[in-house]
Structure to design on (520 residues):
């Protein structure tokens, strides 16, 4: 009985630490308790999830695999092994563990939800919907209901069914009015036409009631968007800046890491003399550039072609480069010519394995991860037959669009501070000049402004560059049914428009320093 009371107390302490995001302390306590009580599954699971939150999924899997030896059919262990493998883009392995859990209990909510997110990541939207609806049908708690309904609403939003998505998010707000992510999601799909707009009033009310600062950025971004719709740019900027200030404080980003990375990339590729030719039997189109430069629109245009599959923003290339070619903060070799060919082949094979998870019949695949502009040298070497499209947009427009939108990726941490944003833009600009000098005929530049002002001409030139026959559907990218999961998900469902050009000028008095930085 004493042991039971002690374990209950320790479990309560650990859960409080976990909910407070003190992950290092959770891991230390759990490791001590695992040695004393190896049969207690909870300590393995919480330690593993703490590692996952610290972006160390491999250590988390080591902990879970220890537990699996003693508890082979434990649903939570199986589900969490699936989750951490999914975090690592080991989708095939993740699916196996979710399926094992569901073979034991077909109504296990956690596995149903996590497998649904995995299917959505691979663009299998029908299966995603089936799994979420099944989870919704067997759910018995309000907490799980919110998780399931959020996933379902995100699915409908990404496939362009805004009516269904908005209705579900509105239902969520009825029982949890402080769900700031639901407010943010509604704002993306909604046009605010009046300061007495019911949703705007609800958001402003919540902004005064919510005391946890970490919950506020999505709400502030949403209110900022609403006031932009209403042409009240002073209020809009106030909320946008507030959202960014909180996010920047939490992330604690330093530009020096990216300065070092970009310099290392240029050093590695300044003299290319590789004598090995990699297999050129690949049909990839990489769409790169600054985020918010038109990459989503370009993918929608190209994937409207009957021979092209739009895979969206893929992380396979970056993840494998970091796994195989970078140690700590530095590349493992000082020149591309001295890289171990096995390591380079591992990057290529990891990418090809990731692509295999998509179910498609089209012969050409697009990858629109914009920050792949950093890896153009590797793309040209590993996938010599691929096409690279560089999306360009007016510097102040693209920078401010980064600043006023929230992103889930830590790779975009530069966005939350105007000085960092300007400095990062300059790094990007200089690296693209470098790549054009190295590969003078290997990169196609596409101006967002030219595309919106001369749609048919620029679209035909783009399709020709991709070595595709002309198809008229490429002029109607808004009709493309592809899933869109980026900040452009609402804009990309509209016919091409010009109203985003020079939009930053509405905020010019707040952006003078940014303008100076990128004009250097």
């Amino acid at each position: 009985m004493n042991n039971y009371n002690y374990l209950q107390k320790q479990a309560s302490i650990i859960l409080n630490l976990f909910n407070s995001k003190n992950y290092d302390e959770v891991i230390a306590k759990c490791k001590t308790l695992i040695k004393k009580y190896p049969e207690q599954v909870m300590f393995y699971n919480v330690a593993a999830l703490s590692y996952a939150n610290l972006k160390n999924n491999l250590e988390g899997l080591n902990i879970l695999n220890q537990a699996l030896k003693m508890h082979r059919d434990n649903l939570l262990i199986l589900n969490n092994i699936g989750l951490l493998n999914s975090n690592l883009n080991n989708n095939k392995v993740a699916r196996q563990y979710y399926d094992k859990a569901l073979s034991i209990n077909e109504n296990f909510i956690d596995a149903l939800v996590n497998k649904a997110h995995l299917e959505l990541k691979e663009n299998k939207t029908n299966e995603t919907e089936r799994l979420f609806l099944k989870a919704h049908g067997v759910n018995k708690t309000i907490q799980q209901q919110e998780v399931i309904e959020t996933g379902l609403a995100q699915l409908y939003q990404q496939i362009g069914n805004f009516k269904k998505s908005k209705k579900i998010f509105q239902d969520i707000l009825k029982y949890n009015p402080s769900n700031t992510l639901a407010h943010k999601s509604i704002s993306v799909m909604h046009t605010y036409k009046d300061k007495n707009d019911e949703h705007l009033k609800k958001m402003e009310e919540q902004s005064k009631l919510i005391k946890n600062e970490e919950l506020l950025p999505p709400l502030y971004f949403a209110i900022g968007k609403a006031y932009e719709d209403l042409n009240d740019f002073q209020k809009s900027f106030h909320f946008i800046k507030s959202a960014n200030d909180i996010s920047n404080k939490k992330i604690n980003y330093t530009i020096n890491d990216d300065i070092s990375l970009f310099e290392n990339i240029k050093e590695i590729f300044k003299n290319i003399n590789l004598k090995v030719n990699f297999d050129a039997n690949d049909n990839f189109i990489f769409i790169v550039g600054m985020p918010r430069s038109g990459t989503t629109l370009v993918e929608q245009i190209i994937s409207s072609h009957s021979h092209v599959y739009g895979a969206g923003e893929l992380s396979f290339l970056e993840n494998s480069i970091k796994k195989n070619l970078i140690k700590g903060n530095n590349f493992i070799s000082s020149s591309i010519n001295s890289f171990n060919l096995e390591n380079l082949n591992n990057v290529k094979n990891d990418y090809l394995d990731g692509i295999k998870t998509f179910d498609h019949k089209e012969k050409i695949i697009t990858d629109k991860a914009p920050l792949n502009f950093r890896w153009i040298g590797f793309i040209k070497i590993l996938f010599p037959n691929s096409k690279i499209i560089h999306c360009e947009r007016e510097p102040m427009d693209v920078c401010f669009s980064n600043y006023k939108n929230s992103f889930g990726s830590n790779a975009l941490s530069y966005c939350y501070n105007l000085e960092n944003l300007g400095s990062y833009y300059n790094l990007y600009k200089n690296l693209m000049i470098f790549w054009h000098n190295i590969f003078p005929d290997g990169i196609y530049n596409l101006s967002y402004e030219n595309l919106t002002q001369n749609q048919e001409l620029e679209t035909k030139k783009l399709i020709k560059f991709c070595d595709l026959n002309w198809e008229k559907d490429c002029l109607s990218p808004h009709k493309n049914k592809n899933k869109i999961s980026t900040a452009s998900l609402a804009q990309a469902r509209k016919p091409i428009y010009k109203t985003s050009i020079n939009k930053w000028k509405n905020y010019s008095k707040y952006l003078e320093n940014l303008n100076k930085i990128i004009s250097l």
User: Anything to note?
Assistant: The mean pLDDT is 93. The longest strand covers residues 284-289. Residues 418-438 form the longest helix (21 residues).
